[in-house]
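User: Some background: our group keeps a shared notebook of sequences we're curious about, and every so often someone picks one and asks for a predicted structure to add to the entry. Today it's my turn. The entry only has the sequence so far, pasted here. Could you supply the structure so I can complete it?
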Amino acid sequence: MAAPSDEEGAVGPRCHHRSTAMLDVPFLPFCAFLGALGFLCMAMVGTWCQHWRGGFSLDGSSRTFNWHPVLMVTGLVVLYGAAALVYRIPNTWRGPKLPWKVLHGSLALGAFILTVLGLAAVFCFHNSQGTPNMYSLHSWMGLGTVLLFSCQWAAGFGAFLLPWAPTWLRALYKPIHVFFGSTILMLSVASCVSGINEKLFFSLKNGTMEYKLLPAEAVFANTLGLLILIFGVLVVAALARPSWKRPDSDSPDSRQPLLSAES
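Assistant: Of course. Here's the predicted structure to add to the notebook entry:
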């Protein structure tokens, strides 16, 4: 069998280069698209709860429960995803790193606060209605995700923003922090999607609105679940893209804690 000529052999590399160039999307337009997608997810979950589930209140009724999906999608998925992408912004690659550390930690803390409020809403509803807590796979997965999130935030704050963590410990913990950051996001997405599905099964039961008949609410909520999944996958893909990662820096500022020992 004859060996391929140089021209024929160059076809493969050229095709690979062309396909790579097609996928070489600049970060900022991609980030803008993700922001629009996240906003769409928040708007859709709010519309679902307002239009089909009766709106919002704090009286312990099903309208109190409606705060749960809104706060979970907003905090545990969208705001958490924004926090995860802070260090992919090219502006963070130059100058002091400390302000970006504070922004990253603050966004994650805001996501955690909204998540805790979302948990409080569902527990308040269950307790007022006499419904058992923590019996479904969705509830186990969701609470496990929140507990892991709390450990992640506390460990990150202690390792990167407080003065007593030595440099070698920060270097050792950093890849663990990055790994669990992506893991928690995907667990958050899985929890939200399973929660939407569970709510539809519980709510769409009567003969004219059964879930299997795919009424308008089911189509809308299923679409919301797919958009949440796409958002999570795209965030994880952005985190994994080598060209969008912040270059490692050994400058003193890159190791600067929030509360320096000298202050």
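Suggested note for the entry: The mean pLDDT is 88. Helices lie at 6-22, 27-52, 62-65, 67-84, 98-129, 137-160, 167-203, 216-240.
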